[in-house]
Amino acid sequence: MQEKFIVLAHGAGGKENESLIKEIFGNVKLNKVEGGIGLDAFDDGALIPAKTNIVTSIDSYTVDPIFFPGGNIGKLAATGSINDVAVMGADPIAALDGIVVEEGFPISDLKKIVSSMINVFEQENVALIGGDLKVMPKGKLDKIIISTTVIGMIPQGKIYLDSMVKPGDRILVSGTVGDHGAVITALQMGIETEIGNLVSDCQPVTPIMRLIRKFNDVHAAKDPTRGGLAMALNEFAAKSGVTIEVDEEYIPMKEEVSALSEMLGIDPLSLACEGRVVLAVGSEIADDVLKILRKNGYDNASIIGEARDNKDWNGLVLLKTRAGGMRILEKPTGELTPRIC
Amino acid sequence: MQEKFIVLAHGAGGKENESLIKEIFGNVKLNKVEGGIGLDAFDDGALIPAKTNIVTSIDSYTVDPIFFPGGNIGKLAATGSINDVAVMGADPIAALDGIVVEEGFPISDLKKIVSSMINVFEQENVALIGGDLKVMPKGKLDKIIISTTVIGMIPQGKIYLDSMVKPGDRILVSGTVGDHGAVITALQMGIETEIGNLVSDCQPVTPIMRLIRKFNDVHAAKDPTRGGLAMALNEFAAKSGVTIEVDEEYIPMKEEVSALSEMLGIDPLSLACEGRVVLAVGSEIADDVLKILRKNGYDNASIIGEARDNKDWNGLVLLKTRAGGMRILEKPTGELTPRIC
């Protein structure tokens, strides 16, 4: 007899655990990295043959609501960790997932979530090589948390670090900012009717990074998730010891995101993106990078500012406002939106 | 002003998140794998220089209670994932952690937990190269969940898989079974007064594996966690297509574990261990393996049975009971103990 809801036994490591995993991961190929060992062996660990540098990242996803316009927690968990590895300059090749789910959770929803996660991995040619599934008693966890680790390979020494922004670099963003954050915040505030056609920008940035990596003079790349563009730019400025000046007018933003931000009284530049990249590139290639991004469907890609060496402001981000003034764009503080990703 | 309890802002990816991480991870060296990039860069991902095969594993730890005799969820999260990689035959070299914590959680407890986790990593010379910290609103998560990924290197082709047990192999266990499971179950049942001096066996199995790897004829190794010895032996039997026969009399077990199991009406062979290894080794080296384990402080290491090719029973585990009978030792079913690890 098949259960329709998660029971504690599904997480106990015995028979029921095995059969649930077969049921929800049933449609995944017995994934492994070529020449390695993966889910096909269902052993304690997985093996990846490596000859080059490895890049890796972990994130625990707690987004609420777990289904949202443009995605769900499974798609987000796959995408988010792929993006963290991709913006370092690596090709994501393998992933592991740790799912913790609440007793009583509908198995049909779990299947949808896992299948969204697997779809992203498959489209990105990332082998899901290992995982874990635990169950918490009812009331001890709100629905589900997914942790993912993604592993990528970097062919040679080319790596993009937040600390490598140079004075003179142009700052680009690959698309509109704050879409994901605006959608989730609106849903949490119960004003979903105001969302309109806005959807989360949740998507892998690997196609962007593949375009970018053809250029020699790209210095830093970052996906502006929690804390949004404001946090990403502050990381660049602080770690690279440069002043970053951006022009509000050039920051691409959807009407709906501006409107929702105003309604909720929040700074849209602090709203999370889940499918954008902020780049610092040499000034001589900035226009070419912009051109290639736009040519490949990233219509809202923009040069939004530049990095300078200004000893009074190094480590900080300056925002030229639409009104014509200049203000420090600070690191976001406060709780912003809990469970945004 | 320092907060004493976790607030939502601690998980929001802004300033408070940064300062909490500095506070609780403050005593960790800016860890990286030699020649790589790690927490020192605090970037999106970490870099590991690799020249050999990589072994990796993820687990999400939900143990309840989070502090228990012999350890806590932090020690367990570090140990458990190190062990999964070690029993594959790898040297663990790097780790990543994803912490999800409930709003209102005492920061002093979080520090204790993180410091236990870091201690294990440091003792094991495992670089903690990346991590994530999220906060769930009060009531949405019972205290804390920690997910860890550990990455290990395997020098040459030597890897231990559950599927490599051969007929004739002797089955060994490195110490008493069920200690961790018995402690946690008793605490959950509210009979802590019955635990006596029993503590969880939570500890890295890397010293055991270093001893074992000197032998050429070791075929399989496994840490019997969820589902205990019963599950581990069933995995060996099923994946290797052999019959495994073990003798109850030779299975090392503490008095307290037998007594607690009887009191609770559970099978001690299904109780989790968190610091033991089950091995399948060629018969000609079994005594030497036993000798070296005992000589190195594993006083309760025992040869508990052997693998056979018996077409009637291949894939199954047979247990010779103390009473002299023979029964099939099945994969554990049912919920056993929720949140055992």
Descriptive account of the structure:
2 copies of one chain form a homodimer. With 341 residues, chain A is an alpha+beta fold. Chain A has 2 domains: 8-157, 60s Ribosomal Protein L30, Chain: A (2-Layer Sandwich); 162-328, Phosphoribosyl-aminoimidazole Synthetase, Chain A, domain 2 (Alpha-Beta Complex). Helices cover 28% and strands 24% of the residues of chain A. Chain A contains 8 helices and 14 strands. Chain A has a 7-stranded mixed sheet with strand order 9-11-8-12-10-13-14. In chain A, a hairpin with a 5-residue loop joins strand 13 and strand 14 (326-328). The two termini of chain A are 35 Å apart. The mean pLDDT of chain A is 93. At the A-B interface, helix 1, strand 1, strand 2, helix 2 and strand 5 of A face helix 1, strand 1, strand 2, helix 2 and strand 5 of B. Strand 2 (53-61) of chain A pairs antiparallel with strand 1 of chain B, so a sheet runs across the interface.
Spatial strand order of the main sheet of chain A: 9-11-8-12-10-13-14
Looking at the overall shape, the CATH architecture of the largest domain in chain A is Alpha-Beta Complex
CATH superfamily of the largest domain in chain A: PurM-like C-terminal domain
Helix content of chain A: 25-40%
Strand content of chain A: 15-25%
Low-confidence stretches of chain A: none
Distinct helical segment count of chain A? 8
- Classification by helices and strands of chain A: alpha+beta
What fold name goes in the CATH topology slot of the largest domain in chain A?
A: Phosphoribosyl-aminoimidazole Synthetase, Chain A, domain 2
Q: Which CATH class of the largest domain in chain A?
A: Alpha Beta
Instruction: Give the SSE order of chain A as H and E letters.
Output: HEEEEHEHEEEHHEHEHEHEEE
